[in-house]
């Protein structure tokens, strides 16, 4: 399903957001996550491709060039985890990340969820605008964390 999110201010400037995976620039996404992100450095390309295939993905585009990305891991009924959110450096400070998160939380398939989750080291201010808070009872949450090792 293709979803083009309408926000007149961004559309007039030539931007769009779509969930059409055929539009994704997987090379750009991989290069950003592997080389520039703090959370996915060393990710094998095959893992990223599988993650994209099994997630609801949002691409941010200026004309036909992809300038941002986000993935949502969800069952479309009770839970969604937002991850791999980024806007390329030259396109930041334009409000695109805020528009992207707004588009995600307002997506028709994401309505009525019981819980949203995400992890961030530096964007709490962005996500708090949409109701995200610190985990109320972190002692109830557990994880197995196996970071990727970046090839030397």
UniProtKB/TrEMBL annotation:
Record domain N-acetyltransferase: where: 15-152
InterPro entries assigned to the protein according to its UniProt record, in alphabetical order: Acetyltransferase_Butenolide, Acyl_CoA_acyltransferase, GNAT_dom
One MF annotation (Gene Ontology) recorded for this entry: acyltransferase activity, transferring groups other than amino-acyl groups
Coiled coil: none
Gene3D superfamilies named among the record's database cross-references: 3.40.630.30
UniProt-recorded name of the protein: N-acetylglutamate synthase, GNAT family
